[in-house]
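Support request from a user on the community tier.

User writes: "When I paste my structure tokens into the form, the page sometimes reloads and wipes my input. The last time it worked, I copied everything first. Here is what I submitted, just in case something in the input itself triggers the reload:"
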């Protein structure tokens, strides 16, 4: 059992010690329980992650499954740097749209209005920052198929350059949405842009923050909105 053994080390030494501990565990072939509040340690070292919230298990899964299929909005927001964007939805004409930008008719329908997969209505949409790109203007970002994507108008609020990538903070209908792009992609705050992402990359959550069923390759998930 290791209880936050690296918490008092500087960033570079923590990185080195993560590798050393993982190599030691593999060499010895023993089971280790490693307690940490650092998601980087959990994701990079674990075979299985147990995410706790207020003394209860929020999700128990391998790191890649925890990242790709968060069971709740808490898990979605906890894992990832920056974490998954979670946007409130509202009922628009013909389907669900992002709350705050549907009234003017300028937001694409993100899901049809239909009963959720488990009988509960969906309340919010999740999308990873690296799955979002500026439509037609983000070289190096994942390609987006116009026929199977959602496009929304947005305003750039912040740009943070980290060397290997740039994180832009945008607003969509008054809600924050982060966009992660490779390399240096600086833009002036206040710039008006169009963001796009594949429908198949969307996650849906009900009012209690519980994820609905996601079917790989489903181009247009169905959802009901509170």
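"...and here is what came back when it finally went through:"
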């Amino acid at each position: 059992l290791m209880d936050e053994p690296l918490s008092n080390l500087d960033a570079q030494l923590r990185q080195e010690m993560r590798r050393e501990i993982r190599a030691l565990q593999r060499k010895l072939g023993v089971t280790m329980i490693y307690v940490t509040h650092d998601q980087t340690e959990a994701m990079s070292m674990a075979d299985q992650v147990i995410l706790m919230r207020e003394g209860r298990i929020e999700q128990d899964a391998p790191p890649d499954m925890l990242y790709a299929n968060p069971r709740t909005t808490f898990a979605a927001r906890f894992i990832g740097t920056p974490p998954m964007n979670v946007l409130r939805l509202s009922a628009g004409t013909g389907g669900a749209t992002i709350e705050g930008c549907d009234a003017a008719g300028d937001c694409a329908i993100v899901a049809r209005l239909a009963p959720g997969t488990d009988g509960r209505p969906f309340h919010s949409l999740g999308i990873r920052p690296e799955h979002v790109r500026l439509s037609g203007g983000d070289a190096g970002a994942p390609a987006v198929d116009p026929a199977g994507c959602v496009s929304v108008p947005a305003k750039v609020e912040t740009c943070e350059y980290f060397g290997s990538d740039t994180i832009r903070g945008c607003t969509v209908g008054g809600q924050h949405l982060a966009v992660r792009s490779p390399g240096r992609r600086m833009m002036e705050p206040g710039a008006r842009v169009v963001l796009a992402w594949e429908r198949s990359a969307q996650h849906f959550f009900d009012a209690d923050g519980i994820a609905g069923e996601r079917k790989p390759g489903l181009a247009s998930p169905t959802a009901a909105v509170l």
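Agent notes: The reload is a front-end session timeout and is unrelated to the input. Residues 215-226 have pLDDT under 50 and may be disordered. Residues 11-28 form the longest helix (18 residues). Escalated to web team.
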